[in-house]
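In this section we walk through a basic example: taking a raw amino acid sequence and producing a predicted 3D structure, encoded as discrete structure tokens. The instruction is simple. Fold the sequence below.
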Amino acid sequence: MNDHDLIRQLLQNRDRENADLAEDIIQTALRLLDEKMDRRDMRVIASALKELRYAAKIFAPYQNHRKVTVFGSARTRPDTPPYQQAVEFGKAIVKRGFMVITGGGEGIMGAAQRGAGRGNSFGLNIRLPFEQEPNEEIAGDKKLIFFKYFFTRKLCFMKESDAIALFPGGFGTHDEGFEALTLMQTGKAQPKPLVFVDAPRGHYWKTWWRFVEDQLLGADLIDKDDLALFKITDDVEEACDEIAGFYRNYHSSRYVKDLLVLRLQHPVTETLLRTLNERFAKICRPGGAFQASAPLPEEENEPETLSLHRIVFPFNRTNFGRLRLLIDVVNQH
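The resulting token sequence is shown next.
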């Protein structure tokens, strides 16, 4: 009996919906042995798979809850304006129906979770020799997950969140912010609101924005439409409005072959279609147009979305800043 038959036999009484993917994982593991992979590489792959499996297990019961990932410095003291702003943000965003994900440490992370409360918080903690002891709000909670690797942790931050809020922070905060922007700019992450939150009358992110405008946009290193991927504010309610407003009509999206499917909570009007075809025709592939649609056959494996309304179009998969502007228009209807 060959490997393929043995794996099929092993999986025959397991979850049939995902058996093909489990088979791929097992086949990949066997190839690592056949290729005599270095043990250090094997450890990285094995640890990463374990971390991602466990994180997926913890998040699974909360799939239908919208979540906001909050980034910011672990060094921010409780007596500072950014800390208090993060506490208020945590309180306000929970009132809008969102849960909060942070790195689980102190500073901004602890502040956001104190505002949100233990029941509405997830902590994705990284094992470091300093700065990353879990904050008391999340310590001991089943929703606190420990990671060895930054890359698996960052993947979970993006994959599990419906929005991102960044407060002032150091290298790590900038790394997380730029990665989020890069993933959305290149279409490697679902569209989602990204808000940079300054302290009241603060200048931290406003100074950063001037750098982006002068050095990146000014040198044609990004497009003007890319600036639509984020918002900067020093007002908690405005930040929450930006996040909640993104889902006023827009619900989610996915690709089906060459089509991008936008799922909406309200019926698609002729006025909306006409507006999109007039203002956003250039993000369609040649000859394409925006159309209302019933659920496509390929979406049958997502029954929770079948009652939603849809707009489909052949997206050029290039102008993601422009796509964000389109979603803003959709949310106005």
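Looking at the output, two observations stand out. Residues 3-59 form one domain. The chain has eleven helices and eleven strands. In the next section we compare this with other chains.
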